[in-house]
Amino acid sequence: MSQSRENKTILQLERVSRFYRTRGNVFRGGGRLVVALNEINLSLRAGEIFGLVGESGSGKTTCGRLIVRLEEADQGCITLNGEDITHLKGKKLRDYRRQVQMVFQDPYQSLNPQVTIADSVAEPLITNKVGSPLDHMERVLKVLNTAGLSPAEDYVYRFPHQLSGGQRQRVAIARAIILEPSLLVADEPTSMLDASYSAQIFEILQGVRDKMGATIMFITHSMASARYLCDRIGVIYRGHLVEQGPAEQVINAPRHPYTKALIDATPKFGRAAEVPTYGTLLAAERPATTSAGCPFFRRCALAERLLCAGTYPPWHQVGPGQVALCHLLEDAAPAVNSG
Amino acid sequence: MQQATIKDLKAKRRALWRQRFMENWRVFMHNPLGRIGISLLIMFGLMAVCSYIPPMIDPMYHPMTGVDPKVVSSVGPSWQHWLGTDFMGRDIFSQLLAGARVAFLVGVSAAFMSVVLGTAVGMTAGYMGRFTDTALMRLADMIMVLPTLLVVLMLAALFGQLSIWMIVLMIALFRWPGVSRIIRAQTLSLKQRPFIDAARVSGASHLRIIFRHIMPNVLPLAFLYMTFRVTSAIVIEAGLAFLGFGDPGTVSWGMMLQWVWKTGHMFQAPYWLLPPGICISLITLSFYMLGRAMDEVLDPRLRDETQAG
């Protein structure tokens, strides 16, 4: 990939937090505060595929939903091309959504069962009043072909239940790219699909990046697919971004214990015994005395009780473009900023 | 785009809708309840259509004003009067036909109105949530606990004889809460589905989401409830008419029953008492069976090709 197009920052998240309040009742008052995202700093460069990796409940989907503005950040600031979009409303929000689209996790749920494929895919054109109905059909056919459904004529007048999961996900991608957005958030687009379909979806996403020049935020729980697809990877744990860097580096030389644990968890084939494991994940969670310490303290095998439990770790520059949030990186220089 | 492609696509679209209809029709007709229900309804429909014929043959067959001059009191079936005559010599068969027309008119229009109202309220409450939801649903609760027949009876007593359209309107106004609760529940669950999020990301407005994405998913349910509402509307109208609060200008089955009862022919003239009674039972039964068969068409669990709704 060329370096030139990756220089410009397209999307920036600055200290973005999102809390959920569990439902309280009249007698107990408000519920408990759950932190879904804690002061996330991220920046996506134009034309890259950025992988956001984390386990279930780590806040990666919340992050995606904040970016497409299905939810609003409670703190912090999200900017697209320098424009603050954190609290957009009405017409401006609609204009913003022409540039930012999303592919959802479950293709069985993300298409309206009562709406034909043609109408589903054409929806962004209609809501944004682009072109005439005849144009719409032409663009729908074109974009379905791009998304790998060909001949597209066979698919336009079908209902979602007449398609397979992989085909539905292609339809969802087609809908997301029909407006040629500059940023596409793909929220685990392959987690519901067979492995063979996944590879095809990855190819389509790569095609979208290469042909349309879209930036893609690829949200996944699988290190393997992140490695296959992404230029850079951010690892997120319980709402905290813990490591970030170029994909090759993060996977070949992970520095944060959680990243190492994720790589350990990747299924291995063939001579699995020869692959070294990092063994950074505790089998049983250890109790934490305070909440001020490292977010990964409870499950980290390397943690030092005094240091890690008590103070929030600093960012360390651990390689070119690679940063990790950990106390135990004495060799690395402290980084001022994560981004 | 080439002309041929457009033509081809239009054909595909027609084929899709035809296929969809045939699929539903097949499931519907596969159900014995559906077959019985639809054939009974066709029969009643024919009766309603044929109700225009007897007055054309002879004015004495007019259900309301036609009196056979040779008859002075109720007589049993004969060639002239297939089901006999009532106490003043009016033909019972032509009254029965006219009753079918009124039953359809009252049943379908009252049900349609209450379902339209109920669907609108239910979708609004479910989609808006919060205060609107609470306000609308408490109003629905209040109306739901009112006994429809009793309230309409009192209104009829207050305002004198109600016309048939007033009765239809009253039934509609008192019977929407049940529909709106169902539709609200359905809307609440639809609202959480990812395809609504997807529509929002696509830039759809709230109105578009309601009409384009939620409505098509609740309409089948609303339609289903309409068949059950038809049943209750017909029964309420018949009850009102039997109690003497019907529209005096129309001949409905309930009205016929009232005449039987009022003139003391209850146990003297089975040829007069039974036909309207059986018709009321059968038409409500047939709408009910229609609804049950449609239930199967709409229930995705009973259909093999639809997954997860």
Topology:
The complex is a heterodimer of chains A (about 350) and B (about 300).
Chain A: E1 9-21, E2 33-45, E3 49-53, H1 60-67, E4 75-80, E5 83-84, H2 90-99, E6 100-103, H3 117-127, H4 133-146, H5 153-156, H6 165-177, E7 183-187, H7 195-212, E8 215-220, H8 223-229, E9 232-237, E10 240-246, H9 247-252, H10 257-265, H11 305-310, E11 315-319, E12 322-325, E13 333-334
Parallel strand pairs in A: 3-8, 3-9, 6-7, 7-8
Antiparallel strand pairs in A: 1-2, 1-4, 4-5, 9-10, 10-12, 11-12, 11-13
Helix pairs in contact in A: 3-4, 3-6, 4-6, 6-7
Chain B: H1 3-30, H2 32-50, H3 53-57, H4 92-128, H5 130-144, H6 148-159, H7 164-191, H8 194-201, H9 206-242, H10 253-262, H11 270-298
Helix pairs in contact in B: 1-11, 2-4, 2-11, 4-5, 4-7, 4-9, 4-11, 5-7, 7-9, 8-9, 9-10, 9-11, 10-11
Structure description:
The complex is a heterodimer of chains A (339) and B (309). Chain A has eleven helices and 13 strands. Chain A is 31% helix and 23% strand. In chain A, the strands form two sheets. A nine-stranded mixed beta sheet of chain A has the order 6-7-8-3-9-10-12-11-13, with helices on both faces. Chain A has a four-stranded antiparallel beta sheet with strand order 2-1-4-5, with helices on one face. Chain A folds into two domains: 4-247, Rossmann fold, CATH 3.40.50; 253-267 and 275-339, no CATH class. Chain B is mainly alpha-helical. Chain B has one domain: MetI-like (MetI-like fold, Orthogonal Bundle), CATH 1.10.3720. In chain B, α4 runs parallel beside α11, α8 crosses α9 and α9 packs antiparallel against α11. The longest helix of chain B has 37 residues, at 92-128. Chain B is globular, with a radius of gyration of 24 Å. At the A-B interface, α2, β6, α3, α4 and α6 of A face α1, α8 and α9 of B.
